Amino acid sequence: SAFNFPVAVWSWNAMLAAVCGNVMIWKGSEKTPLCGVAVQKIVAKVLKENDLPEGIFNLVTGDREVGEWMTEDSRIPLISATGSIRMGKEVAKTVGGRLGKTILELGGNNAIIISENADLEMAIRATVFGAVGTCGQRCTSTRRLIIHESVYDQVKERLLSIYENITIGDPLDESTLVGPMIDQAAVDQMQKALKEIAKEGGTVITGGEPLDEDGFYVKPAIAEVENHYDIVQEETFAPILYLIKYKTMDEAMKYHNGVKQGLSSAMFTLNMREAENFLSAHGSDCGIANINIGTSGAEIGGAFGGEKETGGGRESGSDAWKAYMRRQTNTMNWGDSLPLAQGIDFDV
Q1: Are strands 261-262 and 240-246 parallel, antiparallel or unpaired?
Q2: For residues 134 and 295, what is the distance between their CA atoms, to the nearest angstrom?
Q3: CATH code (residue 171)
Q4: Do 123 and 272 sit in the same domain of this protein?
């Protein structure tokens, strides 16, 4: 599991797996080992109180080498992995090499399309939450905002006004809206991306600076860019929001689908035809597509996962439980004769 939701990702995999009759080994992110230890103690208590044996839920902590061992071990028939696309490709290659199964929930370069027919205040509120919530470190964080030219300036000015007043600080303080990045490497990666934006011709119009407080705090950034920039085509796990202007809905969908990742997507519109098109085969090519709800508003009751380089796996919701089962076809004969395939007469 990844660092950003160190307990949730485990729970929606582990509980389904347990219901399906499996035992499991959990390797959490090396950046959040104490979460795993704390949860494991709670689980051990619950098992004991219900007279269930130890060993149903197991925990290992460690770095990359531990994960590599798990992917290589044929005694583990299914690997569910949440993390970067780079990591997912390595997991898929190794597990596939032994013909094991994988559930991969990887990167997302999630976009919101704001139509000229949108409720702008609702769209802006969803955008801000999606872009800066969890300091931009959700798989479903909003990275790209594709805005109709007729409302572009209005949306931009409103966003700038809101960003100026966002509270940044201690995440345990209820008045805080934006907490820290996970570590210094994440801060450095954000700064590298901001430099790349300028290098490719984009403009950072607000934010991006590291703050002086103790910890890894940054100001969320907004940048005006072109969708084809290399930096825009890749996911940067940081609170950077790209503003992209469009003229026609065909152009908007071309921008929207023109990235390698396909996790979460959203459109804000009060026009039913636009909404239905977005949800159709001609619309979003992501695993999650929302109307008038942000990219990070996915309910866990729905199947969670993406398409393209996001991995194609599904966790929770829908029929995701089937991935944790082995399938077996059974045919039983209680008659006096032996039926043969295709009704063949095979006397011996």
Answers
A1: unpaired
A2: 13
A3: 3.40.309.10
A4: yes
- Which one, of 96, 27, 16, 15, lies nearest residue 59 by Cα? 27
276 carries an active-site annotation: no
Identify whether residues 132 and 243 lie together within a single domain: yes
Say whether pLDDT at 298 is over 60: no
Counting Cβ atoms within 10 Å, is residue 77 exposed (0-12), middle (13-18) or buried (19+)? middle
For the full predicted model, state whether its pTM sits above 0.85: yes
Nearest to 127 by CA among 268, 21, 19, 257: 268
pLDDT band at 302 (very low <50, low <70, confident <90, very high): confident
Examine the domain organization and report whether 19 and 123 are in the same domain: no
Given 20, 54, 139, 149, the catalytic residue: 139
Residues 116, 97 within the same domain: no
The H or E element that residue 232 is part of is helix 230-233
Give me the CATH number covering residue 73: 3.40.605.10
Catalytic option among 105, 235, 309, 315: 105
H or E element: which one contains 120? helix 120-132
Sheet of 221-224: strands edge to edge? 203-206, 221-224, 240-246, 142-148, 110-114, 264-268, 288-291
User: Could you read off the pLDDT of 45-79 as tens digits, one per residue?
Assistant: 999 999 999 899 999 999 999 999 999 999 999 99
Residues 270 and 189 in one domain: yes
CA–CA separation, 196 and 90 (whole Å)? 26
- The H or E element spanning position 102 is strand 101-105
User: Domain containing 15: what range?
Assistant: 8-106+310-324
Query: What does the pLDDT average to over 206-231?
Result: 95
Cα atoms found within 13 Å of the Cα of residue 304, Cβ hemisphere only: 21
Q: At what angle do helices 120-132 and 152-163 cross, to 10 degrees?
A: 50
- The yes-or-no answer on residue 105 being catalytic is yes
> 92-101 b/e with 16+ CB inside 10 Å = b?
bebbeeeebe
pLDDT in tens, 143-171: 999 999 999 999 999 999 999 999 999 99
Same domain, 235 and 97: no
